[in-house]
Description:
This protein is of the alpha+beta class. It is globular and about 40 Å long. Strands 1, 2, 3, 4 and 5 form a five-stranded antiparallel beta sheet that branches. It has six helices and five strands; from the N terminus they run H-H-E-H-E-H-E-H-E-E-H. It has helices spanning 2-8, 10-16, 19-22, 29-32, 58-74, 109-130, and strands spanning 17-18, 24-27, 38-45, 87-95, 98-105.
Amino acid sequence: MFVATLEAQATTYQQIFNFKADLTSDPVQKIWGRGIMVFEYKMQIKDPAEHDVAFFNAAFFQKFEAELNEQAADNGIISAMPKYTPFIISDYWVLDGFFHVDVAFMTNKPTIEYVKDMRKADLEKLQTHGTD
Length: 132
């Protein structure tokens, strides 16, 4: 689904990433535990000077997540709980010329709890930094 989304919007994403040759995915369950359906994708950024950390902002991820879920809907993929979309971007970062993104497939309770915990941790981190 991830690659299908990249290919469906190829004119945009092919200008940013070398995703066909360098796309990899690793489940985060190695770190966080069994049953968590979150996968980390790593793509080389074609022009890190042009597409830096600031480029990958909330608007970029809202658009990408929406496109990912459009692909899911077109293929009959749903989440375990109707109030969630099938896919949620749970984390992202840029490191050494590569863009990393964690995509959660909201298919079971451990995954949903993981995403909730990550969002809660992000909120707490923001609140802590706001008091410095």
